[in-house]
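Dear colleague,

Following up on yesterday's call, I've attached the two folding results inline so they're easy to grep. Please treat them as preliminary; we haven't cross-checked anything against experimental data yet. The first protein's sequence and C-alpha cells come first.
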Amino acid sequence: MTITTSPGIADVLSGDDLDLRPFHGFGGLQGGIVAAIALREMRAVAGPGLVPVELTAHLVRPVDARLGVAAEVTHRGRAVTVVSATASSGSRTAAVATAVLGSTLRAGVPTTRVQAPAVDHPLATARPFVVPPEFVPISTRIEIRPATDPLPFSASPEPNLRAWIRLAEEVADPWERLLVLADALAPSLSAVMTELRTMPTVRTTVRFTPEVATEEFSWVLVDAVTVDASDDGWLTENITIWTPDGTPLATSSQLRAVR
C-alpha cells in the first residue's frame, strides 16, 4: 500500500512549514525524521561524493514547530569527514547531531555481517499490526507486520520485538528512509510490559552499511532488543535492519527514557 496524502514525510524532510502533529511519535516530531532532517543538512554542508557512514543524534526536546538546522564541517580528511549540526525548533535547541561520512570503499577489508534472525511469520503471510494513532500519530504513515509472536505490552518473557516495516509513502533518499524506519518500531522493552508507558528516544546512533547505496528496498526486517534497562529510568536498545532477502542495511543503538 502507498498513500499519496499531501503533505507527507517528504515535505517535512524538505523543511516545509507544516502542521507537524500528524508526524509525531511520542509527544513530538518522530525522532527518525528529526535525525533525517539533520542528516540532509549535514550532507549538503559536507559536499558531494560523500556517503553517510554513521549518524548520532541527541534529541533533547520534543519538536512541535519547523526545524532550523545549522551545520558545520568539524573535520575533513582523505578518508573521513565529520559534520556537526544543531537543530532548533522555535528559539530552542531540539537536537544535536554528528555524522561521519566517507568517500570510497576500501578493497580487501575483512568483513563480518549480522545474519538475519528466524521469523515466525514470513512477510507474505504476516498480519498487519495497527498502532493507535491517538498514541503515535505517525503510525498511519507506517506499515508494521510482526514477524514473531511477541507484541508491545504483551507480557512476553523477553524484551525483543521483530517486525516487517515499510513506509506507506515515498521517501526517496535511502539513508533518510532508514533513519525513519529505525525509529518506527515500538520500544522493545514494551514487549515485557502490560501497562502503557512512553519511552521516547533521547539518543540514537545509526551505522549504515555500504549496501544502502545500492539496494532497492521498501519492506525491511527490523529486530529490536533491550540490552539494559535500569531502575533509574533509562534503557539501551540495539536495533538491526535487513532487506527481506537478508542483506544488512543498518545497525542502531538507542538510549530511551522510560516515563
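Below is the second protein, in the same order (sequence, then structure):
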Amino acid sequence: MRMRLSGVEEILVVDDSPDDLRFLSQLLQAENYQVRPVLSASEAFAALDNQLADLILLDIKMPGMDGFELCRQLKANERTADIPVIYMSALSETEDVVRGLQLGAVDYLVKPLKSAEVLARIAVHLEICRGYSELELRNKSLRRINKQLEGIIDNFDGAKGNAPVSKAARKTKKSGAGGTVKLTARELDCLSLLAQGYRTVQIADQLNIKPVTVEFHLANVRNKLEAKTREQALVTAIMQGLMEPAFH
C-alpha cells in the first residue's frame, strides 16, 4: 500500500446513494481530503486499479456485490489488503458488525451518519496507518544497515589477522584520546537516531535543530570516518566502538 507521510490523503467512498456520496464528499473535501466517490463495487475496483486510496468508506447494502463481498475481495488481494475499510450501514445488529470486522474492516459507522463521528474515526485510522508506514520505513532502513554490518563482520571474520586495514579503520586510529576519532555529542545524537531509522527531518524534530544542521553533523561524521554514505559511517562507528548498535 502506498501511504502518504505528507500531502493530501485520498478517501474512496463507495455508496449507491447519490445523496450520501454528495454529503460525504462535501464533508471530507472541507477537511482537505481528496475524495473519490463511486456508486458500486465495480466502480470501486476500477478506481483502485487506477490509483490506490488511503482509506475506504464502504456502504454495506448495495445492488449487485454488497459491501461485505467487496471488502472480502479487497482483503484477499495483496495490493489492496492493507487499505483500512470503514463500513457504513443502517444495519446495527451485532452479527452484522461482527461479520464486517471479521472480513477485515477496521471500524463501523451507523447511518444516518454524524459529521463529527465520521471525521473522528477517519482521523484515528489514518493516524494509525501513518504510524505503521513510519515504522515500516524505519525497519527497512534498519534492515539495510544491519545487512551492511553483517557484510563487514563476515569479511572481518573471513580474513582474521591477514586483512588489510581499511581507510576508515586507519582514520579512526589517527587522533583523539585512546587513538580513535572523536565524535561530538551532537554527531553521536544524529547517528543514534539514524540507527533507529529516523530520516533527516525526523532527526531534526527530535533534537530541536534544523534539518540543514543535521546534514552538517552527518557530513562531518562521514568526513571523519571517510565513509561514502551515512549508512557506511554508521556501520564504521559501531565497528570501531564509537557507539552502540540500536538494533538487534
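For the second protein, one point worth flagging: Residues 163-178 have pLDDT under 50 and may be disordered.

Best wishes,
A.L.
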